[in-house]
Specification:
Elements: E1 4-12, H1 19-31, E2 36-44, H2 51-61, E3 65-70, H3 76-84, E4 91-94, H4 106-114, E5 119-124, H5 131-148, E6 160-163, H6 164-171, H7 180-185, E7 191-196, H8 210-223, H9 227-256, H10 264-296, E8 304-308, H11 317-320, H12 326-336
Parallel strand pairs: 1-2, 1-4, 2-3, 5-7
Antiparallel strand pairs: 3-8, 4-6, 5-6
């Protein structure tokens, strides 16, 4: 029976001390799952440490690992999209680079996919994050439920598995503001949870600051929901209604009590409140228009500086071009080992091409 190929995509930032352990845990876990083969795509999100040097070494040691180096820091979700362009597998698995998401339990996610789910998210019984990150997760969950209509009983995390058609649907999104959870939720509702352990962080600290979390939330509900505009409309209607009622109250009061002076403080409060609401609504509309302007200017999701294939580039162009199917990879591997079979070159679902320095989803610089 032909094995299914599982593609692990791991965005990496300040993970020089941990990413090697994660890839080794994946290797040990997948060796126990005889029905699957695997590949690993490591995406360096312009980490300031020597993360990509470690990725380069891992690629030289393991044919199954591909390294993608971004030209600047684009964020976790853009890094995921860059990795998605290089996926060849039947099943996509995304996890973190810090070892907190247990690769040893990937079998649970694959079992749920095998039972018919389109997407499987790992649920953590006890999260080993600080209070700030836990608060951020709760706010994010509320935003997803309210803005993107996520089911309340569904837990979403950075550790998930998805079928190939979900990946291909996500790759259709080419704008500059990707939000992977939003892309998943708009693709399918066949999403389930499996419970896994959440570990302590082995080294370093989280790269998410309050500003980055705020930008992520804002990106999520402006890129995939029109509800903020509807809320602004309803707030405007509410303010207009209050102003109308207050005007009626003022007229009636003037007729009933002619000697009562008109209140300057009440007038200024009303002006400041309505003015603030107008500025808020204009800012929200401006945010949508600004994002439309940026997308019309073809701002890239990411820019790839360099791609390193497994075995220090010895793996052929078929793997680098992001083609599909486990059979293609097996064909090239047999050719490298001197076995019968012809290495195949094919064009994948992305626009990447080895050597021409172009990468779908962003303007790519040719590697020196």
């Amino acid at each position: 029976m032909e094995k299914k190929l599982v593609s692990f995509v791991i965005p990496c930032y300040r993970s020089a001390a941990t990413v090697g352990g994660v890839t080794e845990e994946i290797r040990a876990s997948m060796e126990k799952l005889e029905a699957y083969d695997y590949e690993i795509i490591l995406v360096n999100d312009c980490s300031p440490d020597d993360t990509f040097a470690v990725i380069r070494r891992l690629c030289a040691e393991n044919l199954r690992i591909t390294g993608v180096n971004l030209a600047r820091n684009f964020g976790q979700h853009a890094a995921l999209m860059a990795g998605f362009r290089h996926v060849k597998g039947d099943i996509l698995v995304c996890l973190d680079d810090d070892g907190q998401t247990p690769a040893a339990e990937v079998g649970k996610l694959l079992d749920a996919i095998g039972k018919g789910a389109d997407v499987v998210y790992a649920r953590y019984e006890h999260k080993h994050h600080n209070a700030f990150r836990n608060f951020g997760s709760r706010v994010n969950d509320w935003m997803l439920c309210f803005m993107l209509r996520k089911p309340k009983d569904l837990y979403v995390s950075s550790y998930f598995a998805a079928r190939r058609f979900v990946l291909e649907e996500m790759l259709r999104y080419e704008n500059a503001f990707p939000y992977v959870i939003g892309l998943v939720l708009r693709t399918t509702r066949s999403i389930v949870n499996v419970t896994v352990e959440h570990r302590d962080r082995k080294a370093g600290v989280s790269g998410y600051t309050f500003g980055k979390l705020l930008a992520l939330w804002f990106n999520g509900f402006t890129a995939f929901s029109e509800k903020p505009l509807r809320i602004a409309t309803m707030a405007g209607v509410g303010c207009a209604g209050l102003g109308f009622l207050y005007g009626i109250y003022t007229v009636i009061k003037k007729f009933l009590v002619p000697d009562v002076p008109m209140g300057f403080s009440a007038l200024m409060s009303a002006v400041m409140f309505i003015g603030g609401m107008l500025m808020l609504m204009l800012g929200l509309i401006g945010e949508y228009i600004g994002r439309m302007y940026i997308c019309m200017n073809h701002a890239p999701q990411y820019v790839v500086r360099e791609v390193v294939s497994g075995g220090d580039g010895r793996r052929g162009s078929a793997f680098r071009e992001g083609g599909r199917g486990h059979a293609l990879w097996e064909e090239e591997r047999r050719a490298e080992e001197g076995c019968p079979g012809r290495a195949m070159n094919t064009e994948g679902n992305g626009k990447a091409a080895a050597g021409n320095g172009e990468e779908s989803g962003g303007k790519t610089e040719k590697a020196e």
